[in-house]
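Give me structure tokens for this 397-residue protein.
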Amino acid sequence: MKRFRRVIVLVLDSVGIGASPDAYKFGDEGANTLGHVSQFFPGGLDLPTMASLGLGNIKTDVPLVGVPVQSLPLGSFGKLREVSVGKDSINGHWELMGVPINKPLDTFPNGFPQKLIQQIEHFSKRKVILNQVYSGSQAILDFGEKQKAEGSLIIYTSGDSVLQVAAHEDSVPVEELYRICRFIRSAIDHSNLTVGRIIARPFIGTHNKSFVRSNHRKDFAMVSPEETVLDLLAANGIQVTGIGKVNDIFSSRGIKNSIHTSSDADGMNQVIRLVNSPGQGFIFANLVDFDSNFGHRRDTQGYGEELARVDNKLDELVNLMSDEDLLIITADHGNDPTFKGTDHTREFVPVIIYAKGISGKDIGIRETYSDVGATVLENFQIENDGYGESFLGLITE
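Here you go.
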């Protein structure tokens, strides 16, 4: 069985490929992020790189318009089913790295408890406004001027287990906002609440019509109660580099090098830079714009255009890879921009695996995202006592 000196896992945040069998539990029957985005465009999507690797060969209920089936795909392909009880980024990423979340995290359809709000106000010496389920981009349009004028904190949530804090950078400096979010993380961790992520959402602009989120977002995630694949890699001397929000989601555990990114293009450029340099280890990158800029905002046009931009960068990445590199492309959940509401959607996610000189194979439907982490461990010859089944042998035999 061939093994590789360097493994790259690229997470296309929210790029689902069809409703999971348990989608009815989430009200997500019929969701299909990739399928519906492809149907939106006359002629479908133009993704020549992902198509060549086998994206169109993945079996799905909604055809991927414009993404043809390849008779001899360059990569192996299939799809992953999520077993975690939620559909948030923390569920998806942790499960990819071998730790499914089996107990539902708390959600707050009626806003956060008043006791917690009072703790936040007392610590920050700032007033909390909003405190309800709300679209993040709409929150800064509707409440941004009030927040900026009085120096308050816009707190809101979604259908996921998240507490988000938005504030204008001129009224609440970024480092102060981070300090407040760290306090909230600590306060929640010492309470009877279980919240997946506290997210700092600084924004900029002169008035509500020009307010936009800045590039200083930061996630403060709960800490995994179990060792993830990243912990095991670090313990065995394998260097791990996290790109994008990966470091935040795993609370820096197991990650030696963390690279913040300002966009998906920046994230791809960082991956390309590393692959173009000599080295070994594990590169774990998240491209969040699909989710935050287009999925949640139900911007189908923008979603498809972002797919095309990333596909173009992916061509550059593939051409730079050596015989010692293994690339795994997948996602952490769905976020169908044609679907109702503004929340994530419970979906299968695609998995495409590429290495030079290895013919493509159909690895079918995998029963958990954790098969990705198990494959990474087997590649580096680390025993896997946890979750997931490696597909390394399937693609290299």
